[in-house]
Amino acid sequence: MALTRAGGAIGIPGLYVTDDPGAKESNAQKGVLGLRIGLGWAKSHSFGTGSVPCFDTIATYVAILHDKVNVAKAVNVTVCH
């Protein structure tokens, strides 16, 4: 949220479960995702969540791994070295 400009949107794609009793972290055991909602509210962020189709995701990862996609350019960021 610190990197997203005011009025920006944050997407949280993935498959989430309500709880995972066998997880190592206590938050994961309860299905809790730690977000600084106050900061997002102060900057008027929009939030979106949802499942990601596995085949689309795998194809995207393969494209990234084989340098077919410039991730920084795709999400409009500048990489600082």
Would you kindly provide a written description of the structure presented here, covering whatever features stand out?
The chain is an alpha+beta fold and 81 residues long. The chain has helices spanning 26-30, 37-42, 54-65, 71-74; strands at residues 9-13, 46-50. The chain has a two-stranded parallel sheet with strand order 1-2. The longest helix has 12 residues, at 54-65.
User: What is the strand tally?
Assistant: 2
Number of helices: 4
Beta fraction of the residues? 5-15%
Helix/strand/pairing category? alpha+beta
Contiguous low-pLDDT stretches (5 residues minimum) are: none
Radius of gyration: 16 Å
The end-to-end distance, rounded to whole angstroms, is: 21 Å
Encode the helix/strand succession as letters. Answer: EHHEHH
* Biggest β-sheet strands, sense, barrel: 2 strands, parallel
Spatial order of the strands forming the largest sheet: 1-2
- The amount of helix comes to 25-40%
Mean pLDDT: 82
How would you describe the shape?
Answer: globular
